[in-house]
Amino acid sequence: MEVAHLIDSISPEAGGPPRVMLNLAAAQVRLGIGVQVVTRKDAQTDTWWSQWCERTPALSSIPLRALDCSWYATGARARAVRALGDRANVLHVHGIWKALAWQTLANRSRFGAAVLLAPHGMLSPWSLNHHRLKKSVALRLGWRRMLTSADAFHAVSAGEEVEIAAAVPGSQIAVLPNGVAPVDDAAAVPAQSQRANVGPPSSRYVLFLARLHVMKGPDLLLEAFARLIRQLTDEPDLTLVMAGPDYGMRRALESQARRLRMADRVRFLGAVFGREKWDLIRGAALCCQPSRYEAFSLSLLESLEAGVPVVTTPEANVPDVALANAGIVCQGEPEELAQAMLHLLTHPQLRVEMGQRGRAMVYTKYTWSKIAKDSAAVYEALWRRAGEHRGARASG
Asked: What b/e string do you get for 62-96 counting C-beta neighbours within 10 Å, with b at 16 or more?
């Protein structure tokens, strides 16, 4: 089986999609699947690839191809995608609205490979309503028709499966969740931070580990944390650590912290990777991510893997938090979030027990090795079905 993963960017700060795709690709290589990665050519692509390979050595054996995605290279890019589709069995496309996804779907009838499209939450009602006018125009101008040309969709959760089915009726959908690598292996990798001597705070802290974007709810957490510290008067040193790249909210969040008179209680670290990230997770009293929407939160999964209980919302699409009793799922209202955090912070044994249950659940259901095996079965089924379609077209 030969698979090509296509994604617009492999920047470490691009959020979950590149992390999911590259960890899945690495696990697939370990299974003996032939894998290559195709991305948009960027001045930093080689640097980013080196960083990923350092953190996940199995990626070093995967060929990387960077395509020019400028408008004047459309013809050359189309030829490259068609050639790729003639050599591979499956083109696994991550994300939509970008040049590589468009090029693949537009040329679907001109190559033999099956196309598996992973929207990574981009077809959810929340996402479609964000920059709604631009996306509505794109759908009318051809994206809606293009989406139907995919052989199947890759949903990362049962919730996203429902959203894709509503957005593209009649589509084939395979659920392949996000996963984790063994935390001890990941912790052994050198940190990629450019900052010096930035480690976990010395005091107890609540951790927010996500990009600073309205979708992730950092503003809700700030308000909830302000209410929490007014009630938790016996912990004057409790802090909130917000670790993640700025997607346009940091200045407003800093201003909000000042208005709430807790600027000295909040630390903004920016993006964290490698050992620095895992040290932050494992040192946290709890992880809180009050998402307004997630296809399936990867950072919450990593917190559970590290044995740290979580507080989150139903919209984060990790129902196993509640099912495994590994944290608290509540509505994204500041008072409910504050009460959930207060309950965990004042019950240390409960946090330990939840952490143990969360880690056991993750290692049972969400390792990349298991997900890679499941993906291989999905690819085989897609390739067989695509072969039947090829045979029908040839005989017709």
From this structure: bebeebebeeeeeeebbebbbebbeebbbbbbbbb
